[in-house]
Amino acid sequence: QRAAVAHAVYVPEARHPGEVGADQQAHLVAWLSKRLGEPLQVPALDAQGYTLIGGRLLPGDNGAVALFMYENAAAQRLTLYVVRSPKGQQESAFRFSQEGKVGVFSWIDTRCAYALSGELDREALGRIAKLIYLELEGSSPVS
Fold first, then answer.
1. DSSP letter string, the chain
2. Residue 83's CB: how many other CB atoms inside 10 A?
């Protein structure tokens, strides 16, 4: 639910979609990694038609949250909400939820919990979520 709310709040922003723009991606990743206490990486969604436009730091129930925002040529936006996994939390399968017009696919790995949000149909959003999962599991963190 928090991921869907963050998506709904920040997606309409035309001038300030992120605190740090994609032109400063290395700084963005280093800053958010430090704040979360985990090495983060920004999934590349160019092949799916989405480009990173920025990111921001948000407060969460258990500390810092990273929010990455992507946009396609039709100005549709996706957000990837990232928090540290609670200690002892087991990996989870994909879960789908709907908050109004915003669909959310979420999952947990050994280090972080993720939620991909967007106003796409369930199938399209799920396909992108699975690609993100595969990329994050198969790559080393960006420094």
1. -HHHHHHHHHTT-SS-S-SEEGGGHHHHHHHHHHHHTS-------GGGT-EEEEEEEEEETTEEEEEEEEE-TT--EEEEEEEEPPTTPPP---EEEEETTEEEEEEE-SSEEEEEEESS-HHHHHHHHHHHHHHHHHSPPP-
2. 22
pTM of the model: 0.86
Using only C-alpha atoms, the chain has a radius of gyration, in whole angstroms, of 14
Which pLDDT score is estimated for 28?
93
pLDDT, tens digit (0-9, with 9 covering 90-100), for 33-56? 999 999 999 999 999 999 999 999
> Are residues 131 and 48 in contact, defined by beta-carbon separation less than 8 angstroms?
yes
What's the CA angle centered on 107, arms 14 and 17, to 5 degrees?
10
Q: Are 24 and 32 within 8 A, CB to CB?
A: no
Q: Is the pLDDT at 97 greater than 50, yes or no?
A: yes
Measured at the alpha carbon of residue 91, what is the angle toward residues 89 and 97, in degrees to the nearest 5?
Answer: 100
